[in-house]
Amino acid sequence: MTTKHRIIQVGSLAGSPYANKSLADNYDVVELWKYPDRKAALAEHGKGVTAVVTSATYGANAELINALPDLKAICSWGVGYETIDIQAAKQRGVQVSNTPDVLTDCVADLAWGLLIAGARHMGQGERFVRAGQWGQVHGGIPLGLRVSGKKLGIVGLGRIGEAIARRGMGFDMDVRYHNRRKRDDVEYGYEASLTDLAKWADFLIVATVGGPSTRHLVNREVLEALGPTGIIVNIARGPVIDETALVAALENGKLGCAALDVFEHEPKVPEALIKSDRAVLLPHIGSATLETRVAMENLMLDNLRAFFETGRVITPAE
């Protein structure tokens, strides 16, 4: 009888259809989230554990990493890894993997859904019909904005940003982007200043990485530069946008619309955004399709399997 490798799973992967069962079937899983005293659980079960499974929701901080003396790999479900202490992992020689590429198209699709919903008042229109106001209220909902042929700015031209840009070309858009550095392998226009990009654009889609380096990258100045008819879309991480400045810009008419799949303090959403007809709000569902979640799960499991078979993960995060 083959002994199963013991792993520590930081939290339940409820967003994936089969992940918890797949892990339980193939590994001796310490389900860390079920222990009221996490520190004691790590001390009791951590010796000999070489791999941890987590997600961007649960992360892996330095305390967890350093509590596992034999740890060699952290396999994360999802593309974001800002909640994993990469520096602590590097100092310990611990590999970190994520699940890039497999969610790119679905997240890019959702960015476009949010953009069109914001421009065409789809959320407001849907509420209007459900409330039985169609045919009863003179004038209906406000006129929306045409999407095709406009100027699209993208914050972060990585895998997802580039997929969003390609879709923009299908809408006959002029596309420019802001990155930490200019890319020589794309033909889209580059703006070194994010404020200048916002000033130029009709629509701004945020697709950059999260974490301390991009916290409040989109600030009051950027939001006001986008202007009273401008639309900002965020499918990246909530803290990239200064949410207080965002609410103020919407309320004082200096920004046209915010279409958001992520928020600064999830799952808390400011009451002002919930009540605003200038906002389209989704509950962080960028990758939430059956096809993508299964692909993410498979890649996470493949990384874990590859580590135990070869000593190396397939898709290292850095």
Automatic annotation (TrEMBL):
Q: Which domain of life is it from?
A: Bacteria
Task: Give EC number(s), comma-separated.
Answer: 1.1.1.215
Boundaries of every D-isomer specific 2-hydroxyacid dehydrogenase NAD-binding domain copy: 113-286
Q: Does the keyword NADP apply?
A: yes
An example Gene Ontology cellular component term from the record?
Answer: cytosol
- Please state the span of the N-terminal signal peptide per the UniProt entry: none
Query: Keyword set for this entry?
Result: NAD, NADP, Oxidoreductase
What CDD domains does the record tag this protein with? HPPR (cd12156)
Q: Which Pfam families match?
A: 2-Hacid_dh, 2-Hacid_dh_C
Q: Where is the D-isomer specific 2-hydroxyacid dehydrogenase catalytic domain?
A: 16-315
Q: Which family does it belong to?
A: Belongs to the D-isomer specific 2-hydroxyacid dehydrogenase family.
Question: Can you say what this protein is called?
Answer: 2-ketogluconate reductase
Species name: Achromobacter insolitus
